[in-house]
């Protein structure tokens, strides 16, 4: 059992590198590698062996059970639940990193666990976790009130907060539909454009709708301290960028049967012209 626990510890250590955004991966590793007994993953490996399988077959699933267990402990320790200061003899995740990061670290561990075990579509887990929605949210939180947010920063936030999940929906659909690699990549590029377009249009609507409501020329988002596309590119520049994204998205559909690609073609135009 101890040998199995050592193997699990090594696999868990390798599973989450200290990648960008560093803070979220540090928080995930802090709790995941804090020295639990590893009861669940060891049971998983032992059950695999019991029925004649090599334990390596069950290693990803074993790691996934420990990731889920760890995230449940992080969330259980939060002030809104058990409000604990110590876990496994160390400060709890939220005591060390703050509640916002602790919640996101739990979310990222949960989605990462599914990414670990999904064979054909790991895309979905990675779109949600610390390389996806969680990454966008933690960088967004860190950039709040920052006057120097660049277009590159804004794109990073929206690609992760919004586009990655749209991308996963499209890519997983294409994979499950039997697409070859080239078609999957074309579908991916289409969805990235639509994902970013979704956010650019959202920012434009925030400005134009609040202008209408207030009867003013400048809406709330041009005045607020949140970085938006109209703020960085101007309203006309943001509209031009949106039009460019629609062209790029629909260009990626050119290689598909037009009748079958029609819903995605119209979808990009719908996102570009939506009013809410
Ligand atoms: C899973 C989506 C999702 C949310 C979490 C907070 C929550 C929902 C559930 C609470 C689950 C919880 C804290 C159950 C207690 C389980 C338990 C017996 C913990 C102690 O397990 P050990 O002794 O701990 O295996 P170590 O530290 O050795 O890993």
TrEMBL record:
One Pfam family hit: polyprenyl_synt
**The keyword Metal-binding belongs to this UniProt entry's keyword annotation:** yes
Q: Which CDD domains match?
A: Trans_IPPS_HT
Question: Keywords assigned by UniProt?
Answer: Carotenoid biosynthesis, Isoprene biosynthesis, Magnesium, Metal-binding, Transferase
UniProt keyword annotation of Amino-acid biosynthesis present: no
Instruction: Name its GO BP terms in alphabetical order.
Output: carotenoid biosynthetic process
Q: In which pathway does it act?
A: Isoprenoid biosynthesis; geranylgeranyl diphosphate biosynthesis; geranylgeranyl diphosphate from farnesyl diphosphate and isopentenyl diphosphate: step 1/1; Isoprenoid biosynthesis; farnesyl diphosphate biosynthesis; farnesyl diphosphate from geranyl diphosphate and isopentenyl diphosphate: step 1/1; Isoprenoid biosynthesis; geranyl diphosphate biosynthesis; geranyl diphosphate from dimethylallyl diphosphate and isopentenyl diphosphate: step 1/1
Cofactor(s) recorded for this entry are: Mg(2+)
A GO molecular function annotation here is: prenyltransferase activity
- Cellular-component GO terms for this entry: cytoplasm
Q: Which family does it belong to?
A: Belongs to the FPP/GGPP synthase family.
NCBIfam families xref list:
FPPsyn (NF045485)
What is the protein named? Answer: Geranylgeranyl diphosphate synthase
Q: From which organism does this entry originate?
A: Linum tenue
